[in-house]
Write a structure and sequence with these properties.
The complex is a heterotrimer, with two copies of chain A (225 residues) and one copy of chain C (294 residues).
Chain A: H1 2-27, E1 32-33, H2 34-37, H3 47-58, E2 63-68, E3 71-76, E4 85-93, H4 96-108, E5 111-112, H5 113-120, H6 126-135, E6 138-144, E7 151-155, H7 157-162, H8 174-179, E8 205-206, H9 219-224
Antiparallel strand pairs in A: 1-3, 2-3, 5-7, 6-7, 6-8
Chain C: H1 4-12, H2 15-31, H3 48-53, H4 61-71, H5 81-97, H6 104-121, H7 133-159, E1 177-185, H8 188-202, H9 217-228, E2 235-236, H10 237-244, H11 248-267, E3 271-274, E4 283-286
Antiparallel strand pairs in C: 2-4, 3-4
Helix pairs in contact in C: 1-6, 2-7, 4-5, 4-7, 5-6, 6-7, 9-11, 10-11
Classes of the chains: A alpha+beta (225), C mainly alpha (294).
Pfam family, one (chain C): SMC_ScpA
Protein name (chain C): Segregation and condensation protein A
Biased composition (Acidic residues) (chains A, B): 203-225
Amino acid sequence: MTRARDDTERDDNLERNLRIVEAVLFASAEPLSAAEIAPYLDPQAQPDALLAQLQRRYAGRGVNLVRRGSRWAFRTAEDLSFILKRESLEARPLSRAALETLSIIAYHQPATRAEIEEVRGVSTGKGTLDILMETGWVRMRGRRRTPGRPVTYGTTEAFLDHFGLEALADLPGLEDLKGAGLLSARLPPGMQVPLPFDGPLREDEEPLDPDDPGLEESPEEDRNA
Amino acid sequence: MTRARDDTERDDNLERNLRIVEAVLFASAEPLSAAEIAPYLDPQAQPDALLAQLQRRYAGRGVNLVRRGSRWAFRTAEDLSFILKRESLEARPLSRAALETLSIIAYHQPATRAEIEEVRGVSTGKGTLDILMETGWVRMRGRRRTPGRPVTYGTTEAFLDHFGLEALADLPGLEDLKGAGLLSARLPPGMQVPLPFDGPLREDEEPLDPDDPGLEESPEEDRNA
Amino acid sequence: MLRDQQLSAPATQSLTDRVRAANVARMNSAHSSNDRIDTAPDGALANADVLYVELGAYEGPLDLLLELARRQKVDMSRISVLALAEQYLGFIDTVRDKRIEVAADYLVMAAWLVYLKSRLMVPQTTNDDEPSGEMLAAVLQFRLKRLEAMRKAATRLLDRPQRGRDVFARGAPEPIAIVRRALWEADLFGLLKAYASQRERTAPADYQPIHRTVWSLQEARAILQTLIGDTAEWVPLEVYLGRHVGSAAERVTALASTFASSLELVRQGQLDVQQSLPFGPLLLRRKARDGGAS
């Protein structure tokens, strides 16, 4: 019977100490180490064991007890991080450079950055391509099988969707552009508007490596492209 | 079997929603209403039921889920106060006049300045009410529909939060004061003993004008009050 | 400053109101008969001499009355209002004897207490419209009890666990980050225009500048001088040029340059120019040596 009472007492003590650890960590503005928590507890309490137990208790909950170096803190469970974010949509017009680059990718795809620059006659900043990727209208298709293996860009279905095109073939050709007054009639006779292609990889393209994206902006490629 | 799976699914959903409520409330230092939590949950979730369940779960822990008026918040357990107690961070403790005014507003709300002054037997400086408004514990509720349209004052949810009250009904000694007929603002006490009331505007109150606050100290009111 | 109206309020109430107040007050006294009023701290306040010196420490006459009542060390409902009134009046008198300024509101209360005293000591006659002394006393008791109650309530409120002192909110709240997401705007027309204008801009075009014959001022002057020679007659500029300039395209530049040169020659005094109406023919002739016409 004495043992039973001892056990109960120990449990009570444990629970009491757990409650204190819980409250102290909750109220603290900074993560706390076991040593910093100890003064709040019974002299014979073992803060490390208590922390470990509390961590188990909170595992899988909306709030977890996490370790930050040698210190501990409550943090929102990572899978619930959406709670801590609020999206605000703001309409932003695409810059002229981005629009121009997009139009070239649309007509000339699959196109490498160097090819885009050749048509534009100016260099295209990395930022411009980043923005286009962010719009979701442009994607990296693959890599051209040429020295430097430059990335080829193409448009996405979201692009067709946004611009109300059923297929890329709906992009007006040379004559249509002239007819719409978008191209002047005085163009060199040799000039052509390419037939854009957003099908599967072409013969001169190879797939991207799964972990590829970062590579494309390497200076080597720029030089080779 | 289908039923079993449905049950499991429901349990999963419940647990997920509970985790979200837990995380949202943990993330915020200030109390949140069910309506503020709802957007994070499944459309068919019932925030009130979830809150009640979470409150049961945290009962007896070092951190409790407490109700503050119409809002909810996690707070360290009251009984751990002697361990967690910190020196009050308040730079300036409230004056006796301010404290008395605060308790009169709390127990007699909605109360006009004239009613507060009648209880105290002295006029209340503008500064006292200003200080109370500054603490965030007192707010202007509206205007009494009587000559002079005096401003009515009441307490806020921050007041409940600061003094650890679930609702005004938890004000200490409220029942005794009510029984003793000491909650009537004006002499003589009417047939009914009024209770402090922080709900929406009463029949004898009207809303403040949007640009009102400045008006309340006008000499007209003082004369009429 | 205390408002007179406030303190005299009980005296101006209707009789029925006062009766009701008195009843409630009496009822209440039955309720809280066990409720001992806290005794005032001894020491400073126990001494009447100190009391008046500290007049400034009281928040008005009601506060002072409450303090005096507490010094009776009995239940507020059993308190002798008469004794209280006498204490108050005695106190005010002492203060005035010592020529200490007493605020008007204390005097208003004193006047009211004198009235109360008279009502308490004179037996009530049946046809008296005035409120009875008991009623007035009950009103005063009620007010004192209510103020006392609010003081206690404030103390009990402060004794509650307070946020930031006893009970704590999350010390490290996790703020909500606002993620700005752009909703990109672009339309098909803009896209096509962007494409077309670029293609046009960079299209390799054969460009042949048109070469125009331009008469320089120098040339024009030389020719003009030759043409005019020594003629002293007025001759239209057109005629001179007609003789000399072949193509119509050349005529424009020739006319412009010749005209400019003619002005220069006029300035130098070698030539006279005349035009009789706007856009009319320009007539030229060599300037007469004797400086005749101009």
